[in-house]
Protein backbone atom coordinates (compact mmCIF):
# COMPACT_ATOMS: atom_id res chain seq x y z
CA UNK A 1 0.00 0.00 0.00
CA UNK A 2 1.45 3.43 -0.90
CA UNK A 3 2.49 5.55 2.06
CA UNK A 4 0.50 8.73 2.58
CA UNK A 5 2.27 12.07 2.75
CA UNK A 6 4.27 11.98 5.98
CA UNK A 7 4.12 14.76 8.50
CA UNK A 8 7.75 14.42 9.60
CA UNK A 9 10.26 11.82 8.53
CA UNK A 10 13.83 11.18 9.57
CA UNK A 11 15.91 14.01 8.21
CA UNK A 12 18.12 13.19 5.26
CA UNK A 13 20.56 15.89 6.32
CA UNK A 14 23.37 15.15 8.73
CA UNK A 15 22.21 15.22 12.36
CA UNK A 16 25.42 17.00 13.32
CA UNK A 17 24.13 20.14 11.60
CA UNK A 18 22.23 22.49 13.88
CA UNK A 19 18.49 22.72 13.37
CA UNK A 20 16.71 25.98 12.57
CA UNK A 21 17.67 29.10 14.50
CA UNK A 22 14.48 28.76 16.53
CA UNK A 23 15.29 25.14 17.34
CA UNK A 24 18.77 26.15 18.51
CA UNK A 25 17.27 28.93 20.63
CA UNK A 26 15.10 26.33 22.38
CA UNK A 27 18.23 24.26 22.95
CA UNK A 28 20.01 27.23 24.54
CA UNK A 29 17.02 28.13 26.67
CA UNK A 30 16.35 24.56 27.75
CA UNK A 31 19.97 23.71 28.53
CA UNK A 32 21.25 26.94 30.07
CA UNK A 33 18.28 29.12 31.11
CA UNK A 34 15.41 26.79 32.08
CA UNK A 35 17.15 24.84 34.89
CA UNK A 36 17.74 27.95 37.03
CA UNK A 37 15.26 30.42 35.46
CA UNK A 38 18.08 32.87 34.78
CA UNK A 39 18.23 35.93 32.54
CA UNK A 40 20.34 35.84 29.39
CA UNK A 41 21.59 38.87 27.49
CA UNK A 42 20.99 39.21 23.75
CA UNK A 43 24.75 39.40 23.20
CA UNK A 44 25.35 36.05 24.87
CA UNK A 45 22.66 34.40 22.75
CA UNK A 46 24.14 35.86 19.56
CA UNK A 47 27.61 34.58 20.50
CA UNK A 48 26.19 31.10 21.13
CA UNK A 49 24.34 31.15 17.80
CA UNK A 50 27.55 32.17 16.04
CA UNK A 51 29.47 29.23 17.47
CA UNK A 52 27.10 26.86 15.60
CA UNK A 53 27.30 28.95 12.41
CA UNK A 54 23.92 30.69 12.62
CA UNK A 55 24.05 34.22 11.21
CA UNK A 56 23.15 37.17 13.42
CA UNK A 57 20.14 38.12 11.29
CA UNK A 58 18.63 34.62 11.60
CA UNK A 59 19.42 34.57 15.31
CA UNK A 60 17.69 37.90 15.93
CA UNK A 61 14.67 36.75 13.92
CA UNK A 62 14.44 33.60 16.06
CA UNK A 63 14.61 35.67 19.25
CA UNK A 64 11.96 38.13 18.05
CA UNK A 65 9.61 35.41 16.78
CA UNK A 66 9.94 33.47 20.02
CA UNK A 67 9.08 36.63 21.94
CA UNK A 68 6.06 37.19 19.66
CA UNK A 69 4.97 33.60 20.35
CA UNK A 70 5.08 34.32 24.07
CA UNK A 71 7.94 31.92 24.92
CA UNK A 72 10.33 34.61 26.17
CA UNK A 73 10.04 38.22 27.33
CA UNK A 74 12.48 41.11 27.33
CA UNK A 75 13.94 42.64 30.47
CA UNK A 76 15.49 46.08 29.83
CA UNK A 77 18.18 47.70 31.92
CA UNK A 78 19.06 50.96 30.18
CA UNK A 79 20.21 50.02 26.69
CA UNK A 80 20.90 46.42 27.67
CA UNK A 81 18.25 43.83 26.78
CA UNK A 82 18.07 40.43 28.44
CA UNK A 83 15.55 37.65 28.06
CA UNK A 84 13.76 35.28 30.38
CA UNK A 85 11.40 32.39 29.84
CA UNK A 86 7.70 33.05 30.30
CA UNK A 87 5.33 30.53 31.87
CA UNK A 88 4.46 29.42 28.32
CA UNK A 89 8.16 28.97 27.55
CA UNK A 90 8.67 26.90 30.69
CA UNK A 91 5.67 24.73 29.74
CA UNK A 92 6.95 24.30 26.17
CA UNK A 93 10.35 23.07 27.34
CA UNK A 94 8.78 20.80 29.96
CA UNK A 95 6.56 19.20 27.26
CA UNK A 96 9.60 18.69 25.06
CA UNK A 97 11.46 17.02 27.94
CA UNK A 98 8.55 14.64 28.57
CA UNK A 99 8.34 13.78 24.89
CA UNK A 100 12.08 13.08 24.70
CA UNK A 101 11.81 10.90 27.81
CA UNK A 102 9.26 8.70 25.99
CA UNK A 103 11.76 8.24 23.15
CA UNK A 104 14.67 7.58 25.52
CA UNK A 105 12.74 5.15 27.73
CA UNK A 106 10.20 3.17 25.64
CA UNK A 107 7.08 2.05 27.50
CA UNK A 108 7.47 -1.53 28.73
CA UNK A 109 3.92 -2.12 30.01
CA UNK A 110 1.78 -0.96 27.09
CA UNK A 111 -1.90 -1.86 27.61
CA UNK A 112 -2.66 -2.24 23.88
CA UNK A 113 -4.81 0.89 23.81
CA UNK A 114 -4.64 3.23 20.82
CA UNK A 115 -5.63 6.89 20.56
CA UNK A 116 -7.24 7.40 17.12
CA UNK A 117 -7.93 10.57 15.18
CA UNK A 118 -9.80 10.87 11.91
CA UNK A 119 -9.57 14.31 10.34
CA UNK A 120 -9.72 15.60 6.79
CA UNK A 121 -8.21 18.98 5.90
CA UNK A 122 -9.00 20.16 2.33
CA UNK A 123 -6.35 21.24 -0.19
CA UNK A 124 -7.48 24.84 0.21
CA UNK A 125 -6.06 24.69 3.77
CA UNK A 126 -2.72 23.19 2.80
CA UNK A 127 -0.65 25.31 5.19
CA UNK A 128 -2.88 24.37 8.09
CA UNK A 129 -2.69 20.72 7.04
CA UNK A 130 1.11 20.80 7.09
CA UNK A 131 1.03 22.38 10.57
CA UNK A 132 -1.30 19.61 11.70
CA UNK A 133 0.94 16.89 10.26
CA UNK A 134 4.02 18.32 11.98
CA UNK A 135 2.25 18.68 15.31
CA UNK A 136 0.78 15.15 15.20
CA UNK A 137 4.10 13.58 14.24
CA UNK A 138 5.89 15.41 17.04
CA UNK A 139 3.23 14.10 19.44
CA UNK A 140 3.98 10.52 18.32
CA UNK A 141 1.07 9.92 15.92
CA UNK A 142 1.44 7.85 12.75
CA UNK A 143 -0.60 7.97 9.55
CA UNK A 144 -1.38 4.43 8.26
CA UNK A 145 -4.03 5.52 5.77
CA UNK A 146 -5.35 8.89 4.51
CA UNK A 147 -7.19 10.85 7.19
CA UNK A 148 -6.43 8.38 10.00
CA UNK A 149 -3.83 9.00 12.71
CA UNK A 150 -2.94 6.57 15.48
CA UNK A 151 -0.89 6.82 18.67
CA UNK A 152 -0.13 4.08 21.21
CA UNK A 153 0.08 6.66 24.02
CA UNK A 154 -3.51 6.97 25.17
CA UNK A 155 -2.47 9.54 27.80
CA UNK A 156 -1.85 12.11 25.05
CA UNK A 157 -5.54 12.88 24.63
CA UNK A 158 -5.03 16.34 26.18
CA UNK A 159 -2.09 17.05 23.86
CA UNK A 160 -4.22 16.07 20.87
CA UNK A 161 -7.05 18.28 22.09
CA UNK A 162 -4.66 21.23 22.34
CA UNK A 163 -3.36 20.64 18.80
CA UNK A 164 -6.88 20.54 17.38
CA UNK A 165 -7.92 23.61 19.36
CA UNK A 166 -4.87 25.62 18.29
CA UNK A 167 -5.51 24.78 14.63
CA UNK A 168 -9.30 25.30 14.94
CA UNK A 169 -10.00 21.74 13.77
CA UNK A 170 -12.04 20.42 16.69
CA UNK A 171 -15.29 20.40 14.69
CA UNK A 172 -13.65 18.38 11.88
CA UNK A 173 -12.11 15.72 14.13
CA UNK A 174 -13.34 12.31 15.24
CA UNK A 175 -11.34 11.01 18.23
CA UNK A 176 -11.54 7.52 19.73
CA UNK A 177 -9.80 5.14 22.09
CA UNK A 178 -9.53 1.69 20.53
CA UNK A 179 -7.86 -1.71 20.78
CA UNK A 180 -6.45 -3.66 17.83
CA UNK A 181 -8.25 -6.93 17.05
CA UNK A 182 -7.12 -9.98 15.08
CA UNK A 183 -9.20 -9.08 12.03
CA UNK A 184 -7.80 -7.19 9.06
CA UNK A 185 -4.27 -5.81 8.99
CA UNK A 186 -1.87 -7.40 11.49
CA UNK A 187 -0.40 -5.16 14.16
CA UNK A 188 3.13 -5.30 12.72
CA UNK A 189 1.82 -4.25 9.31
CA UNK A 190 -0.19 -1.44 10.90
CA UNK A 191 2.99 -0.09 12.52
CA UNK A 192 4.88 -0.41 9.21
CA UNK A 193 2.21 1.61 7.40
CA UNK A 194 2.02 4.29 10.07
CA UNK A 195 5.75 4.90 10.63
CA UNK A 196 8.88 4.49 8.53
CA UNK A 197 10.95 2.79 11.23
CA UNK A 198 13.70 1.88 8.76
CA UNK A 199 14.36 5.59 8.20
CA UNK A 200 14.25 6.24 11.95
CA UNK A 201 16.72 3.42 12.60
CA UNK A 202 19.06 4.80 9.91
CA UNK A 203 18.84 8.22 11.57
CA UNK A 204 20.03 6.71 14.86
CA UNK A 205 22.96 5.02 13.14
CA UNK A 206 23.99 8.27 11.49
CA UNK A 207 23.57 10.17 14.76
CA UNK A 208 25.86 7.69 16.49
CA UNK A 209 28.44 7.96 13.70
CA UNK A 210 28.44 11.75 13.85
CA UNK A 211 28.80 12.00 17.62
CA UNK A 212 31.25 9.22 18.42
CA UNK A 213 32.79 10.42 21.71
CA UNK A 214 36.32 11.66 21.24
CA UNK A 215 35.94 12.31 17.52
CA UNK A 216 38.00 15.37 16.68
CA UNK A 217 35.94 18.40 15.60
CA UNK A 218 36.81 22.06 15.76
CA UNK A 219 34.88 24.65 17.73
CA UNK A 220 35.21 23.74 21.38
CA UNK A 221 33.02 22.05 23.96
CA UNK A 222 30.17 24.58 23.81
CA UNK A 223 29.71 24.12 20.06
CA UNK A 224 29.79 20.33 20.36
CA UNK A 225 27.42 20.40 23.31
CA UNK A 226 24.88 22.65 21.56
CA UNK A 227 24.96 20.48 18.42
CA UNK A 228 24.54 17.28 20.44
CA UNK A 229 21.74 18.58 22.68
CA UNK A 230 19.96 20.06 19.66
CA UNK A 231 20.14 16.71 17.82
CA UNK A 232 18.72 14.94 20.90
CA UNK A 233 16.05 17.62 21.31
CA UNK A 234 14.87 17.07 17.73
CA UNK A 235 14.47 13.30 18.13
CA UNK A 236 10.71 13.51 18.90
CA UNK A 237 10.24 14.90 15.38
CA UNK A 238 11.89 11.75 13.99
CA UNK A 239 11.11 8.95 16.46
CA UNK A 240 7.47 8.39 17.53
CA UNK A 241 8.58 6.80 20.81
CA UNK A 242 6.73 3.53 20.36
CA UNK A 243 6.33 1.05 23.22
CA UNK A 244 8.79 -1.86 23.26
CA UNK A 245 6.03 -4.23 22.14
CA UNK A 246 5.79 -2.37 18.80
CA UNK A 247 9.50 -1.95 18.10
CA UNK A 248 11.48 -4.35 15.89
CA UNK A 249 14.05 -6.62 17.51
CA UNK A 250 17.45 -4.97 17.91
CA UNK A 251 16.02 -1.44 17.82
CA UNK A 252 19.03 0.96 17.99
CA UNK A 253 17.29 3.92 19.59
CA UNK A 254 17.73 3.20 23.27
CA UNK A 255 21.45 2.22 23.24
CA UNK A 256 22.40 5.09 20.92
CA UNK A 257 20.61 7.65 23.09
CA UNK A 258 22.18 6.19 26.23
CA UNK A 259 25.68 6.52 24.75
CA UNK A 260 25.05 10.06 23.54
CA UNK A 261 23.63 11.06 26.94
CA UNK A 262 26.87 9.84 28.54
CA UNK A 263 28.83 11.93 26.05
CA UNK A 264 26.60 14.90 26.82
CA UNK A 265 27.31 14.52 30.54
CA UNK A 266 31.06 14.40 29.84
CA UNK A 267 30.91 17.57 27.72
CA UNK A 268 28.64 19.49 30.09
CA UNK A 269 31.16 20.90 32.64
CA UNK A 270 33.40 22.51 30.03
CA UNK A 271 30.47 23.60 27.85
CA UNK A 272 28.73 25.27 30.78
CA UNK A 273 31.99 26.99 31.73
CA UNK A 274 32.23 28.39 28.18
CA UNK A 275 28.58 29.51 28.42
CA UNK A 276 29.28 31.33 31.68
CA UNK A 277 32.20 33.06 29.96
CA UNK A 278 29.81 34.31 27.26
CA UNK A 279 27.48 35.64 29.95
CA UNK A 280 30.42 37.44 31.54
CA UNK A 281 31.39 39.07 28.23
CA UNK A 282 27.82 40.24 27.65
CA UNK A 283 27.41 41.67 31.17
Give me the secondary-structure topology.
Layout: H1 21-33, E1 40-41, H2 42-51, H3 56-68, E2 72-77, E3 80-85, H4 87-104, E4 113-119, H5 126-138, E5 142-145, E6 148-151, H6 157-166, E7 173-179, H7 187-194, H8 197-210, H9 220-233, H10 253-282
Helix pairs in contact: 1-9, 2-10, 8-10, 9-10
Structural account:
By secondary structure, this protein is of the alpha+beta class. The protein has a single domain (1-112, 180-283), classed as Winged helix-like DNA-binding domain superfamily/Winged helix DNA-binding domain (Arc Repressor Mutant, subunit A), CATH 1.10.10.10. Helix content is 51%, strand content 13%. It contains 10 helices and 7 strands. The protein has helices at residues 21-33, 42-51, 56-68, 87-104, 126-138, 157-166, 187-194, 197-210, 220-233, 253-282; strands at 40-41, 72-77, 80-85, 113-119, 142-145, 148-151, 173-179. Strands 5-6-4-7 form a 4-stranded antiparallel β-sheet. A 3-stranded antiparallel β-sheet has the order 1-3-2. Strand 2 (72-77) and strand 3 form a beta hairpin. The longest helix has 30 residues, at 253-282.
Amino acid sequence: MPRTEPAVTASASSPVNAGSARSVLLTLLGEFVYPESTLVATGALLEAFACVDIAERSARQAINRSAASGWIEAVREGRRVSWRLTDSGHALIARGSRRLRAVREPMTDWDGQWLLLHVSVPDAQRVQRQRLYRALSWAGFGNPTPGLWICPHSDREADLGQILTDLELVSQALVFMARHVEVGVERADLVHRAWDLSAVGAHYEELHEQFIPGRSRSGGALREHILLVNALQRLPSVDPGLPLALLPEGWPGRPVIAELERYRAALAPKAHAEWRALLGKAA
